[in-house]
Amino acid sequence: MQLYxxxxxxxxxxxxxMFGVVPKGIWQRTNPADSxxxxxxxxxxLLIEDGDRLILxxxxxxxxxxxxxxxxxxxxxxxxxxxxxxxxxxxxxxxTDVFLTHLHFxxxxxxxxxxxxxTGYEPAFKxxxxxxxxxxxxxxxxxxxxxxxxxxxxxLLPMQESGQLNFIKRKxxxxxxxxxxxxxIHFVDGHTDKQMLPQLSYKGQDLVFMADLLPTVGHIxxxxxxxxxxxxxxxxxxxxxxxxxxxxxxxxxxxxxxAHNELCTLKETEKGVRLEDTYTFDRIFN
Length: 286
Ligand SMILES: [Zn+2]
What we know:
This protein is an alpha+beta fold.
């Protein structure tokens, strides 16, 4: 098995919304804000090459939204999903499976694109199965008012209409060590219902794809919970359990949204679990 980080394109989000009740004076030490109060955000996918399977974890927000929509997110940098895949010798048509941690637009928007004459939508990965889970699919397709702006029907319905939609069979409420895709999955419900975090064994280490349980290194202390989370108290509990496990089992945490750090490890301190160190992916795994 071979893993590759795949940068799909950076953007920006409101720093206050990203840190919930934490005051700006504190969060801006780790995540400096620009003049619009926005902070740097990555959309870093992970590609798994495993035998004849090529599995992409999340896709970033894609390219099909309006200029007005993208205007809110101030995209920056040169990364594109095609450019990043090409650099490691692949194209989108090579992807056999796209695993979606959850269906917020910045995680799954890249699955769907305009068709050629821009009259409708089509899958951007024509040979791939799209993987979510049934509970999360129901949650996303009948969205609550709070998450409605994040679950875009133009991202969801074309997955189903194409026949490429598949559901992971959930065998546990918290962690299952295997799945249809060969890796373990943590289920967490604080950010959104039944978010899935892949856990992979790779080169003798355990790596967990953090998605929106821990968006950046700045979010490690327990109360640093995003304002976007639908069940913030549950996120607190889920973070505590996960961070303790991550310390005792020496996990490498892979960040999807941290624009400046790909991986970190954690340590136990008097104040609780804190950052031990950050790493580039290449430093640990190549
Ligand atoms: Zn999310």
